[in-house]
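User: quick one, sequence for these tokens?
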């Protein structure tokens, strides 16, 4: 293993020896600083794998912390659960990165100042670094109109942060509950009937 350790094959050989803990072989042929460097590399990989693997309890804790921050309209706290380059697919559009998330969350806090999440159906179900959350959303608009709708959220995590997020809500059901005035209610009712034609 003597020679130029910048060559890929020799680096791979050193890495294999270190990862299998054959330090005796290396001591005679490799400089001490090279052994230290590649040992640190292995420790770094071990740490990365450790960070990447979230327990089901940790995932559920993050989801419930995220919900609690939304209920309190604490935008900064909500963002603390989010990765810098996270993507959120919502009814209103797709938001990429923390700055866009912040803009969306700030807008949400204004138009729906009162929200509460209640577990429904499967509640929170996790598998690997992904999770599904089923809930009932109880909310009130800025002009005091209350509504209640079922919701589903999809999550993907990386390094204990939300990396991908998708929210699924029935906005038509929301409109049916908050429509004001006879004309608006008739319009919504007519639209619903057209969409459900032949069902009932």
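Assistant:
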């Amino acid at each position: 293993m003597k020679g130029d350790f910048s060559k890929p094959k020799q680096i791979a050989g050193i890495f294999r020896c270190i990862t299998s803990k054959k330090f005796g072989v290396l001591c005679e042929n490799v400089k001490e600083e090279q052994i230290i460097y590649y040992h640190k590399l292995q420790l770094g990989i071990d740490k990365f794998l450790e960070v990447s693997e979230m327990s089901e309890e940790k995932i559920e804790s993050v989801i419930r912390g995220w919900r609690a921050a939304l209920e309190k309209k604490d935008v900064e706290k909500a963002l603390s659960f989010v990765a810098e380059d996270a993507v959120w697919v919502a009814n209103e559009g797709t938001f990429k990165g923390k700055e866009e998330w912040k803009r969306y969350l700030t807008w949400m806090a204004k138009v729906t100042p009162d929200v509460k999440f209640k577990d429904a159906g499967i509640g929170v179900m996790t598998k690997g670094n992904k999770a599904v959350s089923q809930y009932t959303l109880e909310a009130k608009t800025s002009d005091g109109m209350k509504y209640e709708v079922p919701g589903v959220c999809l999550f993907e995590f990386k390094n204990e942060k939300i990396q991908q997020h998708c929210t699924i809500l029935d906005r038509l059901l929301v409109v049916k509950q908050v429509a004001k005035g006879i004309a608006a209610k008739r319009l919504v009712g007519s639209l619903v009937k057209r969409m459900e034609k032949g069902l009932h």
